[in-house]
Every structure is written in C-alpha cells, then in structure tokens.
Design a protein that fits this description.
- It is a single chain.
- The chain has about 600 residues and is mainly alpha-helical.
- It folds into 3 domains: about 1-50 and about 85-130, no CATH class; about 155-400, no CATH class; about 430-605.
- The protein has 22 helices and 6 strands.
- It has a two-stranded antiparallel sheet with strand order 1-2.
- Strand 3 (about 50-55) and strand 4 form a beta hairpin.
- Helix 15 packs antiparallel against helix 16 (about 445-465).
- One of its GO terms (cellular component) is nucleus.
- Keywords: Nucleus.
- One of its GO terms (molecular function) is zinc ion binding.
- This is Zn(2)-C6 fungal-type domain-containing protein.
Length: about 600
C-alpha cells in the first residue's frame, strides 16, 4: 500500500499527476479545461505472493492466487444477480452520488481503450465524490456550524419523523407530517412545548432525563439552531446493574420482556425485541423510555384505569432524545430510533379511539428513506418486518394502500431462508402486495393481476413446510360442541403465517374479478364469494382460539372481524364472535368494543 495523489484522468492515461500547492486542479486538467477528480489518498497494489519463514535456509513463499481447479459456489442474493441491481441511484440524503464502473479484466481484451474507461467514469463526475461520505457529511456539518440546520440540500436537513404528543387525560396531538417532511424542526420543538404545558410530569422528567441511572452521563437536550445535536451511541463503560430507578420500573421492564415483546417477535427467530432491545435499553434512554411507556400504558388498561397519568412521562423523555438525534445528519441511519418508534407505535395503537398514527408516519419516513433497512439483517431487518405488520393493520382496517415502499423488502433474507419465521414473513409480504392491488384508488384490480396473486398464494400453501399443518384435524366430540374448529399449531409463526394465508384468500375472494359479471350468473358467484369469505374467516378465528398463547393471532382475529365479520349470518356464530372479541380485550387489553358495536349494527341492518 502506498500513498497516491493523482486524479482520475491522469491515472486512466498513466500519466504523472502534478498539482501545485493550493491549486484545485492538476497541471494537465487545468491546461485541457477538464474536471480534476481527485481519487482516494491510498491505493493498493496487487500482491501475487508473500514470503514465509525460511526452512533449512531455503526461502519459501505463499502464492495468493487460486488454482485453476479451485471449486466455487454461487451464492444468490434474493434470487438476483449482481448485474440486475441498479447501483447508480444518487444518495440524495447526503447531497452526493456514487457511480460504480465495471473493472477492466483480461476478458475485455485490448478493444476497451483507456478513453472509454475515462468517459465512463466522468459520466457523473460532477455528482460523484471520492472521499468517505460519512466523514464528508460530518465535515460539512462542522463547517456550517453557524448556519441554520434547516437548509435545503445540507446533510442536517434530514427531516425528523412525525411524532405523537399526549397529555395526562389521554388526549393526543399530532404534528402535521407535511411539516416534518419539509424538515421543520420547530414543529417538533412545539411538540415538547405542548408537553410542558399539558404534562405535569414533564418538567421533572426532562430535567432528570439522565438521572434515571447514576451511570448515564450524556446530556440529551433539544439542540438550538447553532448547536450540534448529541449522538445516540452506546456507552463504553462496564455496567453492573440495570438502569432502573425503582421496583416499579423493574416490573414495567419485566412486563415488556415477558408479555409484550412476543407480540413483535412472533416472526423473528432471534427474538430481537425481547432479547437485544432490552440489552440496548440499558445503555440507550430512547429505548428504555419507549419500553417503559408501552408497558405502563398496557398495565393501566389491564387494571381498568380510565386515565393514564404515567406513560406520558416516559413518552416525553423518549421524544426528547429522539428529536435531538433525528436533528443530526446521520440520525436516520440509527436502527435504535426505528425500534423505539415501533414500540411507541404499539403504545399509540392502544389509544384506539384517538389513534392519529403519528409514530406510523415516523417509521414510514425512516423505512422509505433508508431502503436497505429490510435487507441489512439484525435489528434493522426485524424492525422492518414488525413495522410492515403495523402498516398492514392500518391498510386493512382503513381500506387503503400501503404507505410503505414494498420494493425495499425484496432483497430481505426471508426470501431465501428456510426457517419457519421466514415462511411466515413471505406470506405476510404477499398479503401486503394484495392490499396494494385491491385498494388502488385509480382502478380496480385487473383479472390478470388477480389470477397472478391467487397463484402466488396457492404456491405458498403447496410449498410451505409440512409442519405448518395443524397438529390434528377431525370431527371429535369437542369439535362438535365448539363453534370454532380446533386448529392447534406447533409454533407461533405457523399460527400467524396460516392466518395471513387465510387473509390473502379472504381478501382475494372479496375482490373476485368475476363479481363484475352481469345477469343472473352474478347471484351464484356472489353466493360462492360469501361462502368462501366465511370459510376463511372461521379459520382465522379458529387459529386464535386454538392457540391462546399467541397474542399476535388475537390481533388478526379482531382486524378480520372488523373487516369481514358482517359475512357471518348464523346467529350462533355471531354470538361466538362477540365472545371472542371480549376475550381479546381481557387477554391483551386491546379495545374491541368499537368492533363489537360495528358488527352488531351491520348484523341488525342485514335482518331488516
């Protein structure tokens, strides 16, 4: 390795590059009027062999090239070759773009002239940079220390996500997402001002933000327009105790790990939200306070408390750190913020009567901005799939397309892994695609798209592992006495995956392209469709009733009954469905009263 100060043009032509001190161009580029693009300060020479320790005075060397007989194994990336990926997309988040060119090989032969290489490189030379992008972003931020952070094109203008404000009475306030997309930090500043006036815990909570544990020494304050925001990094000190202030916080933390994290980890074999996130929360207040807020809110619902006076304190602390971090140039790359937003979104979903979906906007902005989240493995990938299920809930119950970009999920590892959770995530992704097709506002789903989606759903069902099947199916005495079929599964991912399979079939049946048929044939098709919807709806409910320990399955049952419960015409099934909704509320604290009221009205109208 040797230092090299050379521009691209001189290197391509194998000429000596001379740049006078203080000049912006080398002599040759200045004379020719060309753009002088300086390369990195280090180059690496190809080494064919390295010397080894001598034996009996005889020198030895180890060659670094491979023998012609060396076997190689092709490793596909999500079913795509390297050439199929578009790698010339500008990285607009930091104001630059990177262009990759095909390297010169012996197979190219002498026909590939140096001028061709030069022309290919200089195609996007004006937008390209040859320095470390993160270092450049930090350097630019430091050079603009005295400028406003809200400036188009600068790295510090990465817009923060939409967040939720909540007072002690349970009333919520949501920031306009359009303001956040414009990078309006003052809107987020107003969010905390609203907390100060509405939340009795805020003054003490913000002032003692770093007093939760004596080991936490980093000060997280709202940055001014002239101050650099703090970095959200994990401390290097060795911790001997968990950073919990009292026994009550211990109970909240434990409640999240044991009872709430399985809701998120149902399709993650590594259980990252139940294992890795609590460990990170010991060092990161943004995760710790999100966990405490979610757990506090859930326990208050289970206890039947009408007013939640505790969780807003933790939400305020979490927002304080989150806003400060999103105000930094690299805040959007922090996977801990995405995990915290997902937990806060679950906290927000518990306010069903006043769900403004503010934290959902935050996760949408993060995932759509950083397209690699779903394919980065680790916590990023797990959080991306958890967020996808949250977006599916809104799309299904509000009958609208997905706000999240599904193209970003195509390179995820779940499409070439063979574990049970990956199979479940595949059918979840397919259901999201179906929702995008059937809820398109501009046109109805075409016959060709409908048939293609149905074929994909059937292919998943026929190719899934055999152990995705129920442990036993039959018509025993217990089956005849119960309204719902017994469909006990061997793994929580099987329950959720099979539920989403029936959701796919149910949705496709509801939007059957044959329903556009005119004449008396339409009546027969309509009856077939209604019977198909009822069959799949019964299976969804049966899966949750038969697998009571899978909390996520109860959520899908509630959403499905809200959407298609009107298809149940048997009074016995209707009464059983209302009992299931009561169980959902008792078991999970999920408010299902509005679902029961909605179904009762629809059933009464059908009898009139």
């Amino acid at each position: 390795m040797r230092p090299a100060f050379v521009c691209q043009l001189c290197r391509t032509r194998h000429l000596k590059c001379i740049r006078p001190t203080g000049a912006t161009k080398c002599n040759r580029c200045a004379a020719g009027g060309n753009d002088c693009v300086q390369l990195a300060h280090w180059t690496f020479r190809r080494v064919a062999s390295v010397p080894l320790k001598t034996v009996n005075g005889r020198p030895r060397s180890q060659r670094l090239d491979f023998e012609p007989s060396q076997p190689w194994t092709d490793v596909p990336l999500a079913g795509k070759s390297f050439e199929s990926f578009s790698i010339t997309q500008p990285l607009t988040a930091y104001g630059f773009s990177v262009t990759f060119i095909k390297p010169y090989t012996e197979q190219d032969g002498p026909d590939r002239a140096a001028e061709d290489v030069e022309a290919e490189f200089l195609l996007n030379a004006q937008e390209s940079v040859a320095v470390d992008p993160i270092g450049a972003a930090v350097q630019e931020t430091r050079s603009e220390e005295n400028e406003s952070p809200v400036d188009n094109g600068s790295p510090s203008t990465i817009p923060p996500s939409s967040e939720l404000s909540q007072d002690e009475t349970g009333q919520t306030t949501c920031i306009d997402p359009d303001d956040l997309l414009r990078g309006d930090i003052t809107a987020l500043q107003g969010l905390l001002d609203a907390h100060r006036s509405q939340n009795v815990f805020l003054d003490d909570g913000l002032s003692s933000l770093n007093q939760d544990s004596p080991d936490e020494t980093t000060s997280f304050t709202i940055p001014s327009t002239h101050a650099a925001a703090p970095k959200l990094v994990m401390s290097n000190f060795s911790r001997s105790t968990w950073p919990l202030s009292n026994a009550h916080e211990m109970r909240l933390f434990h409640h999240y790990i044991v009872h709430l994290s399985p809701w998120i980890d149902v399709c993650d074999k590594h259980s990252r939200f139940g294992i890795e996130v609590p460990r990170r929360a010991a060092e990161l207040p943004v995760l710790k306070n999100a966990i405490l807020a979610f757990s506090s809110r859930h326990l208050s619902i289970i206890a039947g408390e009408k007013a939640d006076t505790e969780s807003p304190k933790y939400v305020s602390k979490c927002l304080q750190v989150m806003i400060a971090t999103l105000n930094t140039p690299l805040g959007y790359w922090d996977e801990n913020l995405l995990a915290a937003m997902i937990i806060l979104r679950l906290h927000e979903e518990l306010y069903i009567s006043d769900d403004q979906k503010c934290h959902l906007f935050g996760t949408t902005q993060l995932l759509n901005t950083i397209s690699s989240y779903a394919s980065d493995d680790g916590l990023r990938e797990a959080a991306s799939w958890a967020s996808l299920r949250q977006h599916i809930y809104i799309a299904l119950t509000h009958q609208q397309p997905m706000r999240i970009d599904l193209e970003n999920y195509k390179t995820s590892s779940v499409f070439y892994n063979d574990d049970d959770e990956s199979w479940a995530n595949r059918i979840i992704y397919l259901f999201a695609v179906i929702l995008n097709h059937v809820f398109r506002p501009e046109e109805a789903i075409s016959r060709q798209d409908w048939l293609h989606l149905e074929e994909q759903v059937d292919d998943w069902n026929t190719s899934k592992p055999w152990h995705f099947s129920p442990l036993w199916t039959g018509n025993g005495s217990e089956q005849s006495q119960s309204t719902w079929q017994m469909l006990q599964m061997s793994h929580p991912a099987h329950v959720v995956g099979f539920q989403y399979y029936h959701l796919c079939k149910l949705t496709l049946a509801s939007f059957d392209h044959r329903l556009s048929t005119r004449g008396f044939e339409r009546i027969r098709i309509q009856r077939e469709v209604e019977a198909s919807v009822r069959r799949h709806l019964r299976a969804i409910v049966s899966l949750s009733v038969s697998n009571e320990h899978v909390g996520n399955a109860w959520f899908q049952t509630s959403h499905s009954l809200f959407t298609c419960g009107s298809y149940l015409t048997d009074p016995r099934e209707q009464r059983a469905a209302l009992e299931v909704l009561k169980d959902v509320k008792l078991r999970l604290g999920w408010d299902t009263d509005y679902v029961a009221h909605h179904l009762t009205e629809q059933w009464q109208q059908s009898h009139e």
